[in-house]
Amino acid sequence: MARSILSKDVRKEIQQIGEVDVLVGIPSYNSARTIPHVVRAVSAGLAKYFPKHRTLLVNSDGGSTDGTQEAVKETTLDDLDILLMEHPVYPVHKIVTPHHGMPGKGNAFRTIFKIASALNAKACAVVDSDLRSITPEWIELLIEPVLFHGYDFVAPYYKRHKYDGTITNSIVYPLTRTLYGKRIRQPIGGDFGFSGRLGQHYLQKRVYDTDVARFGIDIWMTTTAVADGFKVCQSFLGAKIHQPKDPATDLSEMLAQVIGSVFRLMEIYYPVWSEVAGSDAVKEFGFKFEVGLEPIRVNLERMVDSFQHGLSNLSPIWRKILSPDLMIQLEEIASHHVVEFYLPDATWVRIMYDFALAYRRRAMSRTHILKSLTPLYLGWIASFVNQTMESDAGEVEEKLEGLSQEFEKQKIYLLANWDKGIKP
Amino acid sequence: MESSWSTSITQSWKKIAGFAPDALQLIIIIILGFILAWLLKLIVREVLKVVKFDVFGYRVGMTSVLNKASITHSPSEMIGIIIYWCAVFLFFLIALGTLELYAVDHLVTSIFTYIPRFVIAVFVFLLGYFLSRFLSRAVLIGLVNAHVRSAKLIATLFQMLIIILFSAMAIEQLGIARGIVVATFAISFGGVILASAIAFGLGGKDMAKDILERRFKASKEEKSKPDEFSHL
Fold it and tell me: Is residue A316 included in any domain, yes or no?
């Protein structure tokens, strides 16, 4: 029999608590500086919006050494049940998480799902431990659609700077929308609400020992909810500001992890997405408002240089991934100077689909395929910045809508080539 | 006179009659060899297909190497063919052994003792070749993503180093001019390392200068500042 992932003490505490209506999980790793604010916001949110419900806050920690758990204990409000525990972390020497440096996020979520299931929680939410912009209203917005409106999954919808979340904007959002037909704007937001039913469904999945759980748990949660037919919606949470990430974080590693998870899920859910045509808006909760966002610096010259450098060095590799006509287009694009640098939406979509197909047919090592995408991705951002330099947030959103429609338009190409060149 | 003729014919006939069983044995062993080799090829090919060796071969670049050599067989079929001919060759040697001729016996013994070393050498060389292709590609992608200017040169040098290393190991295994091989390897390896060091030194001169200037001159910082936006 498999060993329980919950310790004896935690199981005892669960027995004492019995049942809860609302559970909020905070996975953490070395977040002593930021987690008190998150715990205060969650506690206040639970007290303010769900005073008549039995509530529980679970901090699933990945073995922090900076006193994160002590910080949680010290900041907890008196009238709130709290469960502190450690989740197992994979013994990997180097982990570059796609988020904010927390190892074993998949395991943290598994622990939270397990506790939610044991306590028969009706509605649950998970929030990152390094959020600086979280307010008590976030808890209401993530929990209420589940508790009172019958939704199973609540995705976050943040107000972000027009150049923030470029992997989400240029790949994950349009691709997820195209594949599964639901317009979830932040599929890898990191802060979600979900029903107890969906939590149990997640628990039954055998992904916790895979790279998807290790590096792509957010996209996995969203995709599973949508592809397995659960009722999904999104809540407008305002601005998302979190602790600045480690500048040493490797972009190509991060990109490979996120896109690798998306591509892996494409293989798993092919029977679902191959039947989907077009996309539908999902129900939105929360009051949309403009948020003042600080201007950010973008090094356009370096991005274009990365693209050109990539083309001159990685062409033999890209030729095994991209179709010949695309290679000709890339040569032409690379000949332009920074100010005139332009990569059309249609080209970018074809690049992404060709990469997905190369990943599918294992044109070479999958890690090599994913990591060789970085210069192309930087070229796309450079082109996007060039086109939207003078645009406001609304115009940028319109531009992204156009890109998403291009993804939907070319889905037929993806479908037509999905099984081509598959080796025995 | 007639008697000496008949004696020679009788003696020759006796010799042929004495050799016939050996020849028959030789022919039977060779035929058996062809049959067993064919069976072995079939088994090996099927086992390799079951363990998805072709997928592995495709991933490590074995298929593209075969294609380049205009070989239309899949990697598992190719290995089956190699094993088939090796088995046929072995049975041929065994068959020759039945003749009990000193020279042939000596040759067979030498070949049999040399075969394992030859097989290991071929294996080492092939391993080195495919490993060098895989690793040099990883190095190239990593260096390009890290904006290293001489990415292609470094990756090629890296591939050459691995091939030299594994070739030396393979030749060492074959026992061909051991002293010369080791010396040649040491000189080549040392030469490549020295050349790389010089190349790094010359190529990295500007980078080193840039790093020092950035370290000590705040005004130069603006151009190399990283982006501030989050990719996720």
Answer: yes
Cβ separation B229–A188 shorter than 8 A = no
Residue B200, Cβ neighbours under 10 Å: how many? 14
**Do A203 and A348 fall within a single domain?**
no
Q: Residue B179 corresponds to which amino acid?
A: G
Instruction: Collect all residues of chain B within an 8 Å Cβ-Cβ radius of residue A301.
Output: 223
Question: ipTM, 2 decimals?
Answer: 0.83
Q: Is A18 exposed, middle or buried (0-12, 13-18, 19+ CB in 10 A)?
A: exposed
Residues of chain A whose pLDDT is less than 50? 1-2, 88-102, 247-248
User: Does the structural domain B107-218 have CATH classification 1.10.155?
Assistant: no
- Segments making up each domain of chain B, as ranges: 1-100, 107-218
pLDDT of residue A93: 26
The count of structural domains within chain A is 2
Domain shared by A226 and A348, yes or no: no
What residues contact A55, with CB distance under 8 A and at least 6 apart?
A: A20, A21, A22, A23, A24, A46, A80, A81
Per-10-residue mean pLDDT of chain B, 232 residues long, equals: 74 76 84 92 90 78 73 85 89 80 78 84 89 93 91 91 88 78 75 75 67 56 56 68
Using CA atoms, how far apart are residues A127 and A120, in angstroms rounded to an integer? Answer: 20
Q: Does B49 touch chain A (CB under 8 A)?
A: yes
Asked if A76 and A39 count as a contact pair (C-beta separation under 8 A), the reply is yes
Tell me what pLDDT residue A100 has. Answer: 34
- In B, residues 109-138, which contact A (CB 8 Å cutoff)? 134, 137-138
